[in-house]
Amino acid sequence: AAAAAAVLAEAPVKDAGASTANAKDTSPVEDSATDLGCLDELFSAAGDKEEEEDALAAASSRGPGLLSFKEPKGWHGPSPKDLLAQHLRKFHTEPKYHGPKERNKPGQYTVVFSLGNRECKVVTPALLSNVREGQNFAAFTALYEHARDKPYHLRMAPCYRDHWQALEAAEKAAANQAQATEDAKYDDFLDGLYARMEEARLAAAESC
After folding, report:
1. Which of 118, 134, 136, 159 could be joined to 19 by an S-S link, Cβ 3.0–4.6 Å?
2. Which residue has better confidence, 33 or 202?
């Protein structure tokens, strides 16, 4: 998740209400000049999937920005808070949520819980404007970081489901980029090695 956070520093997502299947996990993160409360515009401009992932990575690297997740009207499925509580029952523990110090102002939310003998503290990578969304996004982040092997996101509202998938896409893109960079360095090393070997061979041939 640290890799995702790095990529996601630029990409925490779009307005949850307008989530799209192709506009994968996006976490609205905005800088001073950009309203990241809605990354829909960013993704619309992106066009194809590859550009969409680049936009997500770019948005995530800016640091905490205002994020808004709105479950669709009539949604009766479980919330991220419900799913985290369900997950933690296996460990006989419950999550504790903490909001920003200044009430009624956007801020980052924290959830603290135990996994066996391990104490976990998860902080939302974006600012949220109300308690419900803040606690739900803290629970969402905790599930993404500590229970990604379970398909909890498939039971969440589309806004969270899309955001989860976008985070995975951003992480995959970051990993692919890192691998490509390493491959390029290795290729350069081999090219240089072969060049030196050829120079040594020619020098040895001339001395004979």
Report:
1. 159
2. 202
pLDDT tens, position by position, 45-69 = 444 455 545 544 444 444 455 667 7
Hey, what's the torsion of the CAs at 33, 37, 43, 49, to 10 degrees?
120
**Can you say whether the dihedral through the CA atoms of 77, 59, 142, 173 is positive or negative?**
positive
Confidence of residue 30 (pLDDT cuts 50, 70, 90): very low
Q: Note the pTM of the prediction, 2 decimals.
A: 0.58
Which residues contact residue 110 at a Cβ distance below 8 angstroms, ignoring those fewer than 6 apart?
97, 98, 99, 121, 122, 123, 124, 138
- Please, which residues have CB within 8 angstroms of residue 13's CB and are 6 or more apart in sequence? 25, 26, 27, 28, 29, 36, 39, 56, 59, 67, 162, 163, 166
- HSE of 28, CA atoms in CB hemisphere, 13 A: 27
State the pLDDT confidence band at 153, using cuts at 50, 70 and 90. very high
User: Using CA atoms, how far apart are residues 38 and 188, in angstroms rounded to an integer?
Assistant: 42
Task: Map tokens 């491959």 to a residue.
Answer: 183
